[in-house]
């Protein structure tokens, strides 16, 4: 039993990758963020329900945050969780005491009817939990338009 497991593991080792050892190696910079630039953020909205919309419509959801620290707040990375949402956000520094926003434009044509639950992922220059997941929900009524047949 042990001998057969060793043969299987050895076979997997030799067939797992077609690349020669050391070729196409990409090093990733795993540098530590500068804690001297950290600030604090308070999310005023992190869950938004847009209600009910009709298939074919678009809705824009807005999430607000406030810099409650004493250094400028930066939204360093903002990504929608799927292709049905286009995310946008406050660019540049958000001064201490000021507010910024993250928006998501949701296109129902790229989704399905029924209940929806979508996410936008935000990275900021804050310590301990620099990643925030913003969530929006709602309902899509109606039906997708049938594709037009080309003649």
Task: Give an overview in words.
By secondary structure, the protein is mainly beta. It has a domain at 37-141: Immunoglobulin-like (Sandwich). Helices cover 9% and strands 42% of the residues. It has one helix at 2-15; strands at residues 41-43, 47-54, 58-67, 75-80, 85-89, 99-107, 114-124, 131-141. The strands form two sheets. Strands 1-3-6-5 form a four-stranded antiparallel β-sheet, with no helix packed on it. The termini are far apart.
> How does the major sheet shape up?
4 strands, antiparallel
Shape: elongated
Element order: H for helix, E for strand: HEEEEEEEE
How would you write the strand order of the largest sheet? Answer: 1-3-6-5
The whole-angstrom Rg is: 23 Å
How many E-type strands?
8
CATH topology of the domain at 37-141: Immunoglobulin-like
Overview in brief:
The protein is mainly beta and 151 residues long. It has a domain at 37-141: Immunoglobulins (Immunoglobulin-like).
Observed structural traits:
single chain, mainly beta, four-stranded antiparallel sheet, four-stranded mixed sheet, 9% helix
List the topology elements.
Elements: H1 2-15, E1 41-43, E2 47-54, E3 58-67, E4 75-80, E5 85-89, E6 99-107, E7 114-124, E8 131-141
Parallel strand pairs: 2-8
Antiparallel strand pairs: 1-3, 3-6, 4-7, 5-6, 7-8
